[in-house]
Structure formats: structure tokens, C-alpha cells
Amino acid sequence: MHAPVIIIHTIDHARTALAAAAEQGCKVVLHSAPGAVAYLGATVFRDLVTEAAKEHPGVEYLAVLDCGDEPGLAMGAMRHGIEAVRLHARPEIQDKLADIATQRGVIVFDHDGPVLDLLDMADPLAACRAWLRPLD
Q1: What DSSP string describes 17-44?
Q2: Do residues 86 and 65 touch, judged by C-beta distance below 8 A?
Q3: What would the pLDDT profile of 50-84 be if each residue is shown by its tens digit?
Q4: What would the pLDDT profile of 79-113 be if each residue is shown by its tens digit?
Q5: Is the whole model's pTM more than 0.85, yes or no?
Q6: 105, 73, 104, 102: which is closest to 87 by C-alpha?
Q7: CATH architecture of the domain with residue range 5-132
Q8: Pairwise CA distance, residues 68 & 65, whole Å
Q9: For the chain, what is the radius of gyration of the CA atoms?
Q10: Which of 56, 41, 46 is nearest to 128 (CA)?
Q11: Which of 13, 28, 42, 134 could hold 80 in an S-S bridge, CB 3.0 to 4.6 Å?
Q12: What percentage of the chain has pLDDT greater than the value 90?
């Protein structure tokens, strides 16, 4: 999915990003904070995004859980229903994970472009609106 990437840290961030995407009529990538799998966990992230998405059922989004440099945690995330993971690992490990992910229908997200990080944003909704606004 090619869509703007927004790093979310809370359910309110997810709700805000999805609300702005609904307003703009666009797709969005909801990306966890770096290494979030280690402290948040796969099921909490999955449930957080699922709950937020209930408020915006028409918005197309991809939820990406950042697994840091932990391939074992990325594998666990896949077993817990995470649809997309990001792993920062050596190429051979990335390749193995990509093979397994493909078999499970999971996306290995690899994006090095610009992102909007909602951490410490004074007005996350305004930031999301500006980030998702189409270029004329």
C-alpha cells in the first residue's frame, strides 16, 4: 500500500489519523513507534488499531507493528494476527522473514521515506490534516 505514514503511540493517535484520512478520503499507514512490539505487544497494538478503526469503517489503512531488530518478536506478531511488520535486521534475516510472511499473508513493510510522528504533537488532528492533504 502506497499511502502516507503516520507514527501512532496511543489509541487517540490512531483515532485522529483515521479521522483525518476519512476527511481527506485517502489511505493511511498507521505505524507503531520504533520497537513497539517489545513494550506494547502485538495483541495490544492489533486491538488498539481495530478499536480505532471501528469509528471510521470506510477508511483504508495498513497497521504496521515495528519489531525493532527482533525477528522472534516479528514471528510472534504474525501469529497474533498482525497484518504488517517492520524489522530492522541483516538482509538474510529480512529475506527469511519475508518468505515466512508471504506464506502467512503478512506484509513486511519497508519504508524509508518521510513520516509524521504524532509523539508530543500539540494538535495531532491539525498535523494529520496537513500531512494527508493532497498536493495540488
Answers
A1: HHHHHHHHT--EEEEPPTTHHHHT-HHH
A2: yes
A3: 999 999 999 999 999 999 999 999 999 999 999 99
A4: 999 999 999 999 999 999 999 999 999 999 998 89
A5: yes
A6: 73
A7: Alpha-Beta Barrel (3.20)
A8: 9
A9: 14
A10: 56
A11: 42
A12: 93
Q: Which three cell numbers stand for residue 11?
A: 489509541
Q: Where are the alpha helices (DSSP H) in 1-136?
A: 11-24, 36-39, 42-53, 71-79, 91-104, 124-132
Q: What is the largest CA-CA distance in the chain?
A: 43
Q: For residue 104, how many other CB atoms are within 10 A of its CB?
A: 12
Give the position of cell 489519523.
17
In the chain, domain spans: 5-132
